[in-house]
Design a protein that fits this description.
Number of helices: 9
Helix content: 55-70%
Strand order of the largest sheet: 1-2
Order of helices and strands: HEEHHHHHHHH
Low-confidence stretches: none
Radius of gyration: 17 Å
Number of strands: 2
Length: 200
Amino acid sequence: MTMEIYQSTIAAFDAANAEDPNKEVAGGKEYPKELLYAQRMTEMQERYAPEASEAVKLAVRAQHIQRWKIPRNTYPMDRQGYLQWRTGLYRFHAETAGCIMKKAGYDDAMIERVQAIVGKKGLKVNPETQLMEDVADLVFLEHYLTGFAGQHPEYDEEKWIQIIRKTWQKMSPRAREFVLAGKVKLPEPLVPLILKAVRE
């Protein structure tokens, strides 16, 4: 597979995410929210697993592709609705990534491989899917846990410990070691809570 096809696909993923009407500020600069997320995913993947396959690198960049097109409120606002929304998103992200890859010139085998990763198929048994899950969890801890905490001032310590443990359980031993070795910039105010959650 030529580097040219890979690079044009990454550029097309980024162009699709650049359409996000939602904005986020990082380092004093405003970005389309999902474009920033995709770039953070790639940056973390390169830090955590620079040896990752081409399929993983593509999947990492496309994991949330055009997520804003399926808002949470298009499904019932209960636990069942949340699970249906997540499943719908996995399918949507996989299909969107696959269409872009096909246009760029990838063959069906590579497209299916990336779609399996983006669609979270075989978590815990497909090492490529697990690698993308690790990257997503590391990005959540470094970049999004603080914002999530700000949205839920009603959560007590016990609830936070549950949330952090759920994330921890999805991660491989390698990803856990990466966090404990201090290779992820954890939000300072939450460090004691995170360590309590993962060490108990």
